[in-house]
Design goal:
The protein is α/β, with parallel strands linked by helices. The chain is built from 16 helices and 16 strands. 40% of the residues lie in helices and 16% in strands. It is globular.
């Protein structure tokens, strides 16, 4: 049994229960293996008077709450958006240090398990070094794709990776970036995500379409993603316009919310395909299976990715996937019977969709594959990674000695 402190701002809370639910799945299944887990999920300090502003809802979060049986703490830390970015990791550690020290003294931790390299990983390493607790860091996507490009942040990320006791990533491509940024004798461990087949499973297509008010005869493509440029929704729109020009007008459902909504709607009008595009908005996680099941094909047109959870979710619902060759997608779609990999261009996406719509898929085979990608397996790999990363440095003896600091 291990006692772990998971440290991440990417965790569901009572105000956003579906936020990064994949991380809750990973940690909850890890705890079910007999491990003890507390979660510290820091949030920026927002005065109550500003709680109605963008992101000001976090002012209403309690200092502590219980989610799926886990104790989740929300310490506050000072932050000025954009201005404070170079100090983000330090400010986060400053706001969390006293809480972590208190919890560690009450019942010592074997390890701090940080998710998201910056600022979370930097903050976790600062705290871990101060308290003598081993720290592991897991990269998940934009934290390692984007932040190293900033001159003020890149040295901090390298420092955190160099001082971490274990480094992991959700895809091989991210692990390679980590190892290139900060070489190590032991490469970053790859631990992907799983899929909850109790939540994502195939519904009858006709029934799903009736439930959602969709045509029974149209060809339908679904894209489940935040409406942000990195997710490539604009490329899928252009691919849809190319399909229409080729005489094939399929409906495209963009399931998600984000800052690109207005520009995507404008682009759809400019491309003369607004009548074939729908934006249902953000959908509750429990309802997503109806969208996957209603579609002929699911499309992931991302420019960059870590681990696209929607890929396995779609496959678990028996719906094949057309995905760009980024992030973990090539490692998941290792069999052409699961989906089609394409380049991140409108033309390539269009060709992939055409091939997918023309093909007969074995839906039972898709569902069977998803059943092998369990969260239980992810939890077992996580346990091995944390134990191997920390056991040589932090024995039971000095664990309790550190708690007396």
């Amino acid at each position: 049994m291990m006692r772990i402190l998971t440290f991440t701002s990417l965790f569901p809370n009572s105000l956003a229960p579906n936020y990064s639910i994949f991380l809750l799945q990973r940690i909850a299944h890890f705890a079910r293996r007999g491990n003890e887990v507390d979660v510290v999920s820091p949030v920026p300090y927002v005065p109550q008077v500003l709680s109605g502003m963008s992101k000001g809802h976090v002012a209403s979060l309690p200092a502590k709450e219980t989610i799926s049986g886990l104790n989740v703490y929300h310490p506050r830390y000072p932050l000025l958006p954009k201005i404070s970015m170079p100090l983000h990791g330090f400010l986060m550690s400053l706001g969390c240090y006293r809480l972590v020290r208190k919890l560690h003294r009450q019942n010592p931790y074997d390890c701090i398990d940080a998710h998201y390299v910056f600022p979370d990983g930097v903050a976790a390493v600062l705290i871990g070094k101060a308290l003598g607790i081993p720290v592991t860091i897991t990269a998940r996507g934009s934290d390692i794709h984007t932040f190293p490009q900033f001159a003020s942040v890149r040295p901090q990320i390298r420092w955190a990776l160099r001082n971490a006791d274990g480094r992991a990533a959700v895809s091989t491509s991210l692990a390679k970036i980590i190892d290139a940024l900060q070489p190590s004798t032991e490469g970053a461990k790859v631990i992907g995500n799983g899929v909850d087949t109790q939540r994502f499973f195939a519904e009858d297509r006709r029934s799903a379409r009736s439930r959602l008010g969709l045509s029974q005869t149209e060809e339908i493509v679904v894209s489940v993603a935040a409406l942000r440029r990195v997710k490539g929704s604009d490329m899928l729109l252009r691919a849809g316009a190319l399909l229409r020009k080729a005489g094939r007008g399929c409906r495209i459902l963009f399931v998600g919310a984000g800052p690109e909504l207005a520009s995507l709607q404008r682009l759809a009008r400019e491309l003369d395909c607004a009548d074939l595009v729908s934006f249902p908005g953000a959908i509750d996680n429990e309802e997503l299976r109806y969208y996957y099941s209603a579609a002929d094909v699911s499309c992931i047109p991302s420019r960059n990715e870590g681990w696209p959870n929607v890929l396995l979710e779609s496959i678990a619902c028996g719906t094949p996937v057309v995905a760009t060759k980024v992030g973990a997608a090539p490692g998941i779609l290792t069999d052409t019977d699961l989906g089609i990999l394409v380049d991140p261009t409108p033309e390539s996406i269009c060709n992939g969709l055409r091939r997918a719509l023309d093909r007969t898929w074995h839906h039972d085979q898709l569902v069977a594959y998803a059943a092998t990608q369990t969260w239980e397996g992810v939890a077992a790999a996580t346990e091995d990674f944390l134990r191997n990363s920390t056991q040589s440095k932090f024995s039971m003896v000095n664990r309790y000695a550190a708690a007396g600091l």
